[in-house]
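Long-time lurker, finally posting.

We've been working with ABC transporter permease (Microlunatus elymi) and I want a structural starting point before designing mutants. I don't trust myself to interpret raw outputs, so I'm hoping someone here can both generate the C-alpha cells and explain anything notable. Sequence follows.
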Amino acid sequence: MVQQEVIAPETEEDHEPEELVEVPLVDSKVGEIPQWRLMLMRFRRSKLAVVSGIVLILIYLAAIFAPFLSPNDPAKVDQNYKFAKPSSWTWSGGPAICRTTQEIDPINITTTYKTDCNNAIPIHFFGKGFDYKVLGIIPTDRHLMTVSDGKLLIFGADSNGRDIFSRTIYGARVSMTIGLLGVAIATILGSIIGTISGYARGATDNIIQRFIEVIISIPTLPLWATMAAVLPQDMTVTKRYFVMTIILSLVAWTGLARQVRGKVMAYKSADYVAAARSAGSSHMRIITTHLLPNATSHIVAVAMLAVPATILAETALSFLGIGMLDPAISWGVLLQDASKLDVLTQYPWVLIPGLFVILAITCFQLLGDGIRDAVDPYS
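Top reply, 14 upvotes:
Generated this for you. Predicted structure of ABC transporter permease:
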C-alpha cells in the first residue's frame, strides 16, 4: 500500500506578514534621447570625420583672419623675388631667415637666388606690415610674423614675386566659400523641386524628371566652361564671384532633387501623412511639417558630400582661365603657374596650393561620410 502524506491545513500563524517594498517612481523621460544627441553620438564614433571637421574649421578660421596670418601683401608684385624659393629658416638669438640675394644667369637666362645664413634676418612676432581691417571693421597693421628687411616667403613666390603663402590663405576665402554658397543654392533648388516632383506626381513629376535627365546628360565641365566663357572679361571680382557661384549651382541640384523626390514619395504613403490629410491639413502644411523635416538629415548629408565637387569645379575652371581671374585670388588662379611643365620642374613650390585643395577635398569627403553615417537611423 502507498502511504499518503497528510498535509495539515495552513493557519494564519504560519504566515509572517510580508514587508512592503517601496518601488520608486520611474521617470517617464528615462531612456529618451533627442535625435540630435543620437546623431552626435554616432558622429563622434568616426575619428576621421571629427579630425576632418577640426581641420576644416582651422582652414576657415585662417581664411577669416588671412590678413593677420599673411606676412606680405598677397597682391604686391615684386620682380626682385620672381619664383623665389621658400625662405631658409635659421636661429640667430631667435627665429630668423637667411638673407636672399637675386642673381641672373647670363648663359641660361634664368634667375637664381643665393642664401646667406651668416647675415640672418630676425623674425618679429606681431610686428608691423601692410594695413588691413580686422573683419573689415578695425584698421590695423599688425601681423603674426614679419621681417624688418627682405621678404618672408614660407611657400616661396610666384611668377610675379608675390607671396604664395599669403595668396594661399587669401585663396581659401574664395575657393572654400564658393563651394558652401553654391551648394546652399543647389540644396534649396533641389529640395523645393524634388519635393514638388515627389508630392505632385503625375504630369508634373514626369516633366520635372525629363528636364533633370536632360541636364544630367550634358557633360558637366564643358557646360560650366561654356557658361563661364560667355561672361564679360571686365567684370569686377565680386560680381564674377557671385555669377560663378550661380553657374556652379545650376547643375549641382539635380542629384539632390531626385533623392528628395524618392524620400518624399516614401513618406507620402506613411500612415501619419494619411492621418494628417484626413484631419484636414493643407498640402503646404503636410510638406513643411511632415515631409521635409523627415528628409532634412538626408539633405544635410548629401549637401555636405556635394561641397567638394563644387570646390573642384571652381578650381578647374579658374585653372583653365575661365573661372575666377586675376586679380582675384583663388586656389585655381594660383595653380595657373603650375600649368607650364618647365616652370613646374624648376619651381615645384608653385604646386603647394594644390596640396591645400587635396586636403580640403579629403576632409570634406570624410566629414560627409561621418555625417551620412550619423543621420542614418539604421547605423
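Before you design anything, note these points.
The chain has two domains: 50-62+166-375, 78-162.
The two ends are 69 Å apart (CA to CA).
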